[in-house]
# Entry
Amino acid sequence: MTKKNAIRLALVLALTIVLLILSFGKMNWGEAWRFLLKNVRWGMFILVALLTPMHMLTRSIRWKYLMNREKPGVRMYNMFAANAVGFTASYIFPARIGELVKPIYLARQEKCRVGYTLGTCVVERIFDVLTMCLLLALFLLARPLYISTFNLQEAQVKRLTGLGIIGAAAAVFLFAVCLGCLFFREKALALAGSLLRFKIFPEKFRAKALELIHEFIDGLKAFRSLRDILIYLGLSIFVWLGINFYYWIFFQAFAIKINFFFLLPYLFMTAVGASIPTPGMVGGYHLFSIEAMTMLFGMDVSRAGGLTIVFHAVQYVVTLVVGFIILWKDGSSLVQIKRLGEAKNP
# Structure
C-alpha cells in the first residue's frame, strides 16, 4: 500500500468511526433489540430481503435507455450485473469505487466504449440528485394539505429545505458543466488538452485521457433533447418511488404504519447520508437515517437505531450475496474488481 493510499484509508476510517459514534452514542441497545424482536413480522421481513435487488433492476431499465444509443440491444443481465458488482465494490471498499467499477464492468462485458458508459453514469447521478430534490420539493409544497396529520416544526422544514437547496445547486452545477462540455465540445476538449500538457502527465496518459473525454462527452447525449431529458426524468422518478416503496415495506415489517408519501423526506435524508464516501455507507447512512426517524416520525433514538442497523444489514448482506454470485459466475474476484476501479481512478 502506498503512502497516499494509507493516508486516504486512515482518513476514511476516522470519518467512519466519528459518524458511528454520533449515530449510536445515545442508543440503548437492549431497548432496541426488544423492540425489534417484539414487532418483527417475519413474512414481511422476508419480502424485504427478496425486494432488496429491486432497485438494481429499475436502475438497469433506466440505464438501458441511455446505453441503447451506444449499443442497441445491450443485455439486461449485464446491466443488472454491472449495478450489482458496482454496489458490491462500494459496500466493501472506500471512496465509492463502485461508481467507477460499474460502467467499466459493463463496457468490458458488452465491448462498449468505457468513456461513454462513464458519461451515462454521470447523467444517472445528476438525475438521481435532481429527482430526490424534486420529490422533496413536492413534499414540502404539499404541506398545507397534510399539516393537520403530519405537522413538521418550522426548524425541521428549514433544515429539509436547506439540504434540498444544496443538493439541487450541486446537481444544477454539474448539469451546467455537462451542457458546456456537450454544446461547446471543441472548446472543452481544447481546455482538457491544455491542462493535460503539464509535464506531470506522461504522453501515453494524455492521449488515453483525451480519448476517454471524447467518449465521455458522447455519453452525455441525453442532454441534447428535451424529450430525452423528460423521459429520463420519468424513469428516475420510477426508480426512486420504487426505493420509497421498499422503505415502506420495511417499516410495515416492524408494524410501523407510515404513509407512503410521508416517507419521501426520509428517502431524501438517507440518500444524503449514503453519499458520504465511507465503505458500505457505514456511518453516514446510519446517522442520517436515525436523525430522519427521530425528526420526522418522533421515534426515540434506540428504536430508530435498531431499525437502521437491521435495514442496512439486510441491504448489505443481500447485495453482497448477489454481487458475489455474479462474480463467481463470471470467474472474477473482488481483488480484480477493485483493480478495475483503481485503473481509472488516479
